[in-house]
Specification:
It is built from nine helices and eleven strands. Strands 6-11-10-7-8-9 form a six-stranded parallel beta sheet, with helices on both faces. A five-stranded parallel beta sheet has the order 3-2-1-4-5, sandwiched between helices. It is elongated. The termini are close together.
């Protein structure tokens, strides 16, 4: 059985590895070379790199018996395009969900725009860990109070520069980070507000939340988009079913 996984996440890598061991012919589609790095060394797993729109996804799906959407919990546009592509091509699809985190003490907002509006009326330095694509939502804030943690790519740094963030405030690093590392950053840059998404365990959310508590910073949590799907074992059972039918 030929299986296509739209990935670039930790659980996507784990799923690809386990599906290949079961006997599936696995291809993982990732948007960036950074995502491809996480798949190096996996036996029996092919990788394709590059962003795709819906029509591109439909072309790629040709010849695959099943598809799994293992993209990030906040990849709303990609998830919608994958769902539409599979519907158009008649490819059976499953969505692999990442378990949500418990963040009772966080300030919860629906979007990065809402987070920016909340912060506009409050003082203090802000650590943004929501990704380079979301930076435009914070354009109305004083860039000198923003400390931005982005992936160490040209695109990430360019997004910070476009926002006017001083270079000394750009933290170009690849996580996830330990609690101590997060605490050190919060202390070093005198952070009052830590803005994050719920990346779950693979995204180091618990370590960020614990660091914020310990250092007296407030956590501003951008809620996940509504989604439906199954966990790792559910999706693997579905893949096994496809292998037995083939």
């Amino acid at each position: 059985m030929r299986l296509l996984i739209f990935g670039g996440t930790t659980e996507g890598r784990v799923l690809a590895e386990r599906a290949a061991v079961l006997g599936a012919e696995v291809t993982v589609s990732v948007a960036t070379p950074l995502g491809a790095e996480e798949l190096k060394g996996l036996p029996g797993v092919c990788t394709r790199v590059g962003r795709l729109d819906q029509s591109g996804m439909e072309v790629l799906l040709t010849g695959f018996e099943r598809c799994v959407d293992a993209t990030h919990p906040y990849a709303k546009i990609a998830t919608a395009a994958i769902r539409a592509s599979c519907a158009c091509t008649g490819t059976p699809l499953r969505r692999l969900l990442r378990p949500a985190s418990d963040a009772k003490s966080a300030v919860r907002v629906e979007s990065c725009g809402e987070a920016a509006a909340f912060l506009a009326g409050r003082e203090g330095n802000v650590l943004l860990t929501t990704g380079a694509k979301e930076l435009v939502a914070f354009a109305g804030l004083d860039p000198t109070r923003l400390f931005v943690r982005v992936l160490p790519t040209r695109e990430g740094i360019a997004a910070c520069e476009a926002l006017g963030v001083p270079h000394r405030n750009i933290l170009a690093l690849q996580g996830p980070f330990s609690q101590k590392m997060n605490e050190a950053m919060l202390e070093q840059y005198r952070i009052t507000w830590l803005v994050t998404k719920d990346g779950g365990q693979p995204g180091g959310f618990a370590e960020k939340a614990a660091a914020a508590r310990n250092m007296g910073a407030r956590l501003v949590l951008v809620e996940r988009p509504a989604d439906c799907g199954g966990d790792m074992e559910d999706v693997l059972s579905w893949i096994k079913e496809g292998l037995s039918c083939g």
